[in-house]
Write a structure and sequence with these properties.
By secondary structure, the protein is mainly α. Helices cover 64% and strands 0% of the residues.
Length: 86
């Protein structure tokens, strides 16, 4: 359907340069983690970076590959953010 409507199938196809995207993907994922809606979302927020990478390259996201690692990373980031605020 995307092809029929002329919608790019990835961020890269939309014209974003890989170097520019990779330079900003960590901040994008961090901003998504800090979004006020994240607390109400039952998904682990650090999978956001993987979703963004998969979207850039036009790959399908597979949570099964990332959920265990993301859970540990989410706990580490939350702990790190609490330490920074203190």
């Amino acid at each position: 359907m995307k092809t029929q409507l002329g919608i790019p199938t990835s961020i890269r196809e939309a014209g974003v340069q890989e170097a520019d995207f990779l330079a900003k993907v960590d901040k994008l994922a961090d901003d998504a983690f800090d979004d006020q809606c994240t607390g109400a979302n039952p998904r682990y927020p650090l999978i956001a970076k993987q979703i963004m990478l998969d979207t850039f390259y036009g790959r399908e996201f597979s949570e099964a590959d990332n959920s265990v690692a993301a859970e540990g990373e989410a706990k580490a980031v939350k702990s790190e953010k609490k330490t920074k605020k203190a």
